[in-house]
Write a structure and sequence with these properties.
This is MFS transporter. It is a multi-pass membrane protein. It is a single chain. By secondary structure, the protein is an all-alpha fold. It has two domains: 186 residues, MFS general substrate transporter like domains (Growth Hormone, Chain: A, Up-down Bundle), CATH 1.20.1250; 188 residues, MFS general substrate transporter like domains (Growth Hormone, Chain: A, Up-down Bundle), CATH 1.20.1250. Helices cover 79% and strands 0% of the residues. Helix 2 packs parallel to helix 8, helix 2 packs antiparallel against helix 9 and helix 13 packs antiparallel against helix 14. The longest helix has 30 residues. The N and C termini lie far apart (47 Å).
Length: 403
Amino acid sequence: MSQALRLYRNAYSGLSPSTWLLSFVMLVNRCGTMVVPFMTLYLTESKHVSLGKAGLVMAIFGAGAVCGGFIGGRLTDKIGFYFIQLYALVGGGLMFILLGKIDSYPLICVTTFFLSVVNESFRPANATAIAHYSKEENRTRSYSLNRLAINLGWALGGTIGGFLASHNYHLLFWVDGISNITAAALLWLFLAPSKNTATVQKIVRHSETEVVRSAYKDRVYIIFILLTIIFAFCFFQLFSTVPLFYKEQLRLDESFIGIVMGINGVLIACFEMVTVYSLEGKRHNLYYIVYGVIMIALSYAVFNLLHNGYVVAVASVLLATVGEIFSMPFMNSFWTSRCVPENRGQYAGLYTVAWSIAQIAGMGAGPWLAQQFGFAVLWWCIAGLCLFAAVAFKWLSLNEDIF
């Protein structure tokens, strides 16, 4: 027992105060993350649009996220990660509230796009801030702490969101918007440059003649980004198609769907930090990514291999959680290992864009493919894509030095 307690204590020690403050801001923000996971259900159940139209809205959200990733990454390198995070949180919060008041389908599409541009510009700035506040030897743990905050918030927000969705979908938009604005207030109170000496307004290049490598000319990183898109395409089914599968095929209600989503967050909160602490620096980041992607593949395969609805849902989320713990923290460590402070925003922006492109394809194509060919065909295809990505990540780890 004492060894386990010591392991947990060591896993959380040595991180900077600013890293903890940034994670607290993220926790507050993510406690209100309810709209995106339930957006497809909201559109089909409350607005009575078709499954294909609901998928289109999610694809539009992804398109806005691509733009937000590029813009946020570029502006982060120019004016600093603090201001981009602040503006994105305030602007996103106001637009979430506005979106919940719109009934017209075309206006929902337009508002969703601009909401996504503003809201998703936060991601590269936040990723850059984590790298800035951390040291190289604890950078993976710093990202894991931030992910812990995200998943604790996800556990609470997903559970409450499921309860609210079963009563009134419009409450989701208010809670999401208010949590964004509250997080912005906390960011200003704790991490404003005038109140926290660890926060810089922008990165200043040490020499005017210094050449900084472009992320777009880093061939290893470009291959990594392409594989990340494939993996993220599969992962995003958890947020668009899987809830529909639970509702339509397994006949699970919204409350249980929210609980299943919450299980993922609770398990990550309990085990990710100590897992990363035990593994960080012992093998190449890509080694862990390979096994994480394989576990994600298995999490989709069980949909076709098991039959009891409750068992299927729980087994899938357990496998997906293990895969997430092994893959995502080390994906962050991989991209940060290839950049310098002067171009972190660019690398972070491209990484954000990869996930956003996958969001366009995955969240739009998933429901459409399920509608056209059935869920069983979809799950085999997704599992196969994950396995392909795992093999390709392994190939990249073996050939990284030749590029």
